[in-house]
Amino acid sequence: MLGYVTRPCSIFDIHFFFLMIRRPPRSTLFPYTTLFRSGGGVGIYVGGADGHAEFHAGQLLFARDGALVAQPFDALTAQLTGDPRVLLPGIETLGAAVRTVMSVSRTGMMLYVESSLAVGHDRVTRIDREGNVVEAIGDPASIDAVRISPDGLRAAVVEGEVTLGNGRIWVMDLERGTKSRFASGGGNSSSPVWSPDGRYLAYMSADEGNTSFRILVRRVDGGGSPVQLVESADFVSPESWSPDGTKLTYSPENRGIWVIPMTSEGTAAGEPRPLIEEEGSNAWGSCFIGNSDWIVYHSSRPGTFELFVANVDDPSRRLQITSTGAIYASYNRATSEISYSALGTDQLSVVKVSFSDAGSDPVFGTPETLFRLPRSDIDYAVDFQGDELVIGLGAQGQKESAPRLITDWRRLLAD
């Protein structure tokens, strides 16, 4: 018999619970989590601000590999004093595995969101426009992103937890389901972007401590050495390579969207320049649409994330194309559609885009909702192959998440 009690709870329960929480007395140091921290790597830190790790009853509570973990912690010396142990096998996280959807009261009550998604059991999966699984490809793995080659025969697959510093890029043959390691050695690799001819991949590479970040370009066949385009102490991510091969967009952390002029051999043809700069907002996630003159991206400038398009040569030519909340845009060249995730609903929507002539602004059709995305974090792992999506999908199918309330989490320590 369990030494604690859990029960499903409603949204009303969640609101009431968060209102009644009181923080227990503790030192002036607080645990918090970080994804990419300048000069300090990735993980849980102690500082003067609260965050996504919880400290209660002498235990630091955090998520690791999809599970809730407790580890003894001395708040006065800011030192771990014992070994970690798993309290709950499945807990919802937001984007990074260290950001738990959980809160704890001083009385021992814990509210968390239970998740049935098994870490390490994703598969590259084809899905049709109705959301039906067409085919699962390759072996199970922990998939962070999937990017399809221009010829549709291969995929660059990011496996591991990028935000925890162990992302690895593989190149998968979509017909055979076989894969080979793209970037070898230590460190962290993610954000692969195919060149339009399929010969090169641009990608983010970080050292083992995630204290230095670079954008590299390397031949997919493994020949030659990687070519460095950008180096930064802050996180940088390549985003889209123009169809004519002359431009590569990327996002430096909190600095908008930049563009690098490129040669046909995967090297820089000039210095990077800012493309989208918006003070007090967060603009990123760019993708070339149509020819090589326009990008679509999302920005929080309106107060919530919405989609915009901008002309690469004249960024003042800018149009907002959504108004109800949208993020994570991509472009399907086979159907001339921009796809995006609707904020708060996980609904995948598409909108047609066309150009009357080479110098005209794009014209947009009526948005169409296709289906609910199978995972709330699928935005990081979706691409198109013709009229189908290719994603990293949990082997057990759609993830089920439910809020749970434990009357006294401390009894978990006794089990």
Give a description of the structure:
- The chain is an all-beta fold.
- The protein is built from one helix and 36 strands.
- Strands 4, 5, 6, 7 and 8 form a five-stranded antiparallel beta sheet that branches. Strands 29, 30, 31, 32 and 33 form a five-stranded antiparallel beta sheet that branches.
- Strand 17 (188-194) and strand 18 form a beta hairpin.
- The chain is globular and about 70 Å long.
- The model is unreliable at 1-51 and 395-399 (pLDDT under 50).
Class of secondary structure makeup: mainly beta
Rg: 22 Å
The tally of helices reads 1
Beta percentage is over 45%
Proportion of helical residues: under 10%
Mean pLDDT: 78
**Largest β-sheet summary:** 5 strands, antiparallel
What distance separates the N and C termini? Answer: 10 Å
Shape: globular
**Unreliable parts:** 1-51, 395-399
Total strands: the figure is 36
